[in-house]
Design brief:
alpha+beta, Gyrase A, domain 2, four-stranded antiparallel beta sheet, three-stranded antiparallel beta sheet, 19 helices, disordered N terminus
Length: 477
């Protein structure tokens, strides 16, 4: 490895060269200690690593991470966890961890196998086993038959692109069909999930899984812990059910009844997806300009904010235009755009929410998934002949789910198709909202979340036109 020499010398007359390299082939806990020790050791990282053993790494973590609470050290121990044949519902709960990276089996590019659904052990050991199993088999049968029907329809009605190969055309027909048929998939369908996570976040994630009302998630939490212990034996061994979070929240009996105008529609009422801007900062434009100016300014924040308030609208507009410039499609926008947030309430089909949930930089608070908020029925169902199949699937799912719910309230969710709606509260800063709106409004995206992305940006534009007029690249429907 070549290390460029920059002419510096240390106190012993040895030349000092800049080095950039990867620490590899070491256990995650040893890597964490290697990085942690640099705060007190003058030695290079690889020299530090040579002097470490697994037992020394364990001793270090027991003392500093466990004993003294220096949990940031555990962030250097990274694991790549593969989870196979877990339910979609379980995957969504695991993905509710902000400081992680996930890749999940796609509902757009894969056709799900008809017998691949989760069978809750408690339900299958009960008198409701047949009810659950028959309903899930029926839902997956409708999904598979509908997929074949929809692919055939697209092959007949889609216009081929110029010079499009047979293989490319077939893939496009399949993807279009998968996009429609995902509305039929129950959340108990089995999926695969790849998870990259550091040990600090993993310990917290396990503690949340262990308090889940779903037995599947509690079991997964224990299995993840056992697997992780072979790689980070010290850093996750104290992961236990988080009783504090189990008790957090306001009890339902203390909450006010629903207002008439907030009526929950029945599961037989088809609905459009909805997004409402429910809260924002009226002074956001001045605060964003002050934040844009802050890094190069000499005065404090209050001084800058007072200066901004004294500017004319035209002067503010010119400053924003100059500061933002011309972001390219992959540019995130200035960090100063994070200086204000917007609170949206979104009611959307569960399948589209799965895509929205990936934006983990924002705060998302999800209500329970039930059939009570109605369902989304794409207009393409009428064209492709799927409407009757969809009605049959909903009737099967809701009927069985209501029976299961009497004995197993948590497990009843597995039967609900992704086409039913869920409601979530999202607090998002302007920078992330801009990224979300550009990415999710793309014509390549699913129509459900495309509409949400465009509507979100339109509502931000109405609230703060000065901030948004120079942020380009959001697609129209």
């Amino acid at each position: 490895m070549y290390h460029p020499y920059d002419g510096r010398m240390d106190t012993k007359g040895r030349r000092m060269a800049r080095r950039v390299y990867v620490i590899q082939d070491l256990p995650p806990e040893t890597v964490a200690v290697t990085f942690a020790k640099t705060s007190r050791s003058p030695e290079p990282f690889d020299v530090i690593a040579e002097g470490l053993t697994a037992s020394k790494a364990t001793e270090f973590h027991e003392k500093w991470v466990v004993g003294y609470g220096h949990s940031s050290v555990a962030e250097h121990a990274v694991l790549h966890i593969a989870l196979e044949d877990i339910s979609i519902a379980a995957a969504k709960a695991i993905e509710d961890n902000r400081l992680s990276s996930f890749t999940e089996k796609s509902t757009r590019y894969q056709v799900y196998e008809p017998d691949r659904f989760f069978r809750p052990p408690a339900v299958m050991a009960s008198a409701l086993a047949k009810t659950y199993d028959q309903a899930m088999h029926e839902l997956m049968r409708i999904y598979i038959e509908g997929m074949e029907q929809t692919i055939a329809w697209h092959r007949e009605h889609l216009t081929r692109a110029e010079k499009e190969t047979d293989r490319a055309f077939a893939a496009r027909c399949r993807a279009r069909s998968c996009d429609l048929m995902r509305f039929f998939l129950p959340v108990g369908t089995l999926t695969n999930l790849g998870w990259t996570v550091n040990a600090r976040t993993l310990e917290y994630a396990i503690s949340k899984l262990l308090i889940s009302p779903l037995a599947e998630l509690r079991d997964i939490g224990n299995e993840i812990k056992q697997v992780a212990l072979t790689h980070v034996p010290t850093l996750v061994k104290y992961a236990v059910p988080n009783e504090y979070h189990a008790q957090c929240g306001i009890p339902a009996f203390r909450l006010p009844p629903a207002l008439p105008e907030e009526r929950i529609v029945g599961h037989d009422a088809a609905c459009e997806n909805e997004i409402r801007l429910v809260a924002y900062d009226a002074a956001a434009e001045d605060k964003i300009i002050a934040a844009l100016a802050y890094p190069r300014a000499a005065g404090n924040y209050e001084h800058l904010l007072a200066w901004v308030r004294g500017l004319t609208i035209e002067e503010k507009d010119a400053l924003i235009r100059e500061a933002i410039g011309s972001p390219r499609s992959f540019d995130a926008g200035p960090r100063a755009l994070e200086a204000t947030t917007y609170t949206f309430e979104i009611t959307i089909d569960y399948g589209a929410w799965r895509d929205i949930q990936r934006h983990r930089l924002c705060t998302q608070l999800l209500q329970d998934f039930t059939p009570g908020l109605g369902y989304v029925e794409p207009r393409e169902f009428g064209l492709t002949g799927l409407a009757e199949r969809y009605r049959q699937a909903r009737a099967t799912a809701v009927g069985a789910s209501q029976r299961i719910k009497e004995m197993f309230p948590a497990e009843a969710v597995y039967l609900l198709p992704l086409g039913y709606r869920v409601r979530t509260l999202i607090v998002i800063n302007l920078r992330e909202a801009y990224h979300f709106a550009r990415l999710r409004s793309s014509p390549m995206g699913h129509q459900s979340y495309r509409r949400i992305a465009v509507d979100m940006w339109r509502q931000i534009e109405q609230a703060h036109p000065l901030l948004t007029r120079h942020l380009s690249g959001v697609h129209e429907l």
